[in-house]
Write a structure and sequence with these properties.
Length: 224
């Protein structure tokens, strides 16, 4: 699976993709993550990728030409399943969306900046718009990193124990049950006895009950 991220600030994405699960997934050859500097596609002396908005107003708008040049070049090399724009007014990222995207082959992710991007980019090229929450960040780089992480960990072979992804919170519309490790008794705070008893059926029943109760208390909307 390949991700091509288009950004004006590629340095912001160096660290998220160079560590932990995302790094291992790339080393295994399971996924490929390529960051493209939008300024490399700017056709002007100063490599500007933004301009003043038509109609006036504050802020600068990212121009259509550099995005179009980069996207068209990438599309000439391979077919893409999705061209995603990270934006606060997109559909909210959910586990279901991550599950769906994990079955794709090639994805382009556009990272906006400044006041926003020319609407024509969204109208012509973008196939899906995704938000990671009802708030505004300085750019789309961090949301893009969140999306890639959420998707890559679901690809078979990325995690050492594939069942761990299947039991995460929001899989099956429930939050995950509490988890514990050694010591069994820390300053009087004890691990539930059922987890120490060795009965797999009892443990699974306890986890199901705990997941339901936690979801009912913290995210009752999921149970609807």
């Amino acid at each position: 699976m390949q991700f091509d991220l288009i950004t004006v600030l590629p340095g912001l994405l160096e660290s998220p993709f160079a560590h932990s699960i995302l790094q291992r997934a790339q080393k295994k050859g399971i996924t490929k993550i390529i960051v493209h500097n939008l300024r490399d596609y700017a056709d002007n002396k100063h490599k500007n990728v933004d301009d003043y908005p038509y109609g006036g107003g504050s802020g600068m708008v990212m121009s259509i030409e550099p995005f179009a040049a980069c996207i068209n070049k990438l599309k000439s090399e391979r077919e893409y399943d999705e061209i995603i724009f990270m934006t606060p007014d997109g559909e909210m990222l959910t586990q279901t969306i991550a599950n769906n995207l994990s079955s794709k082959e090639n994805i382009i992710i556009l990272c906006g900046h400044y006041k926003g991007i020319d609407q024509r980019i969204r109208d012509i090229f973008v196939t899906r718009e995704i938000s990671i929450g009802d708030y505004v960040l300085s750019g789309g780089e961090l949301p893009a990193a969140v999306l890639v992480d959420a998707v890559v960990r679901l690809i078979p072979g990325v995690l050492s124990d594939e069942t761990s992804a299947l039991s995460d919170s929001f899989q099956g519309d429930l939050l995950d049950a509490p988890v514990y490790t050694r010591p069994a008794d820390w300053m009087g705070y004890k691990v539930p006895e059922v987890l120490l008893g060795g009965s797999h059926s009892a443990i699974e029943q306890w986890r199901d009950e705990q997941a339901f109760e936690r979801t009912k208390k913290r995210r009752p909307d999921l149970l609807k």
